[in-house]
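Please decode residue identities from the backbone states below.
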């Protein structure tokens, strides 16, 4: 569990900017035992951060191109382009329990996805049409149809 004592101010380089200036942000620092490692064959440093989930085990796997102290120019683009199932397996197998002084910025991400068009494209468009949808087996109401199918995802570190 993260406490206020684990929070601190840290600086990060803002890469999308041409100036590559340092940005001050709040981060979290904690000494913890996690699965972490370096995969030499894929040149990736990785760490698995466990999360509490009422649905069972859930974790965030963080990948960083190169070794822990190295900066790899265009490393993320190269990593994304070359990552396949076999390499992903090698990365996961490279992690072992390690006690580390882990630090990362505190962040929040929220996204809303509408899947109605995708479902219509794969042949489920009738679900959204008042005269064609048939959910009478669920509610007994024949005129019931879906307006949209959306997914809201929120993630906080």
């Amino acid at each position: 569990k993260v406490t206020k004592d684990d929070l601190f101010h840290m600086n990060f380089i803002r890469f999308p900017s041409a100036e590559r200036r340092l940005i001050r942000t709040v981060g979290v620092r904690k000494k913890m035992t996690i699965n972490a490692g370096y995969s030499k064959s894929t040149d990736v440093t990785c760490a698995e951060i466990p999360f509490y989930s009422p649905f069972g085990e859930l974790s965030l796997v963080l990948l960083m191109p190169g070794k822990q102290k190295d900066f790899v120019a265009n490393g993320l683009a190269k990593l994304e382009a070359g990552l396949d199932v076999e390499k992903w397996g090698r990365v996961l197998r490279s992690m072992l329990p390690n006690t580390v002084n882990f630090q990362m910025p505190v962040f929040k991400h929220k996204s809303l996805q509408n899947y109605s068009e995708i479902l219509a494209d794969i042949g489920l468009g009738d679900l959204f049409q008042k005269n064609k949808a048939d959910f009478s087996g669920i509610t007994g109401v024949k005129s019931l149809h879906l307006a949209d199918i959306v997914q809201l995802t929120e993630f906080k570190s």
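Observation: Residues 39 and 94 are 5 Å apart (CA to CA).
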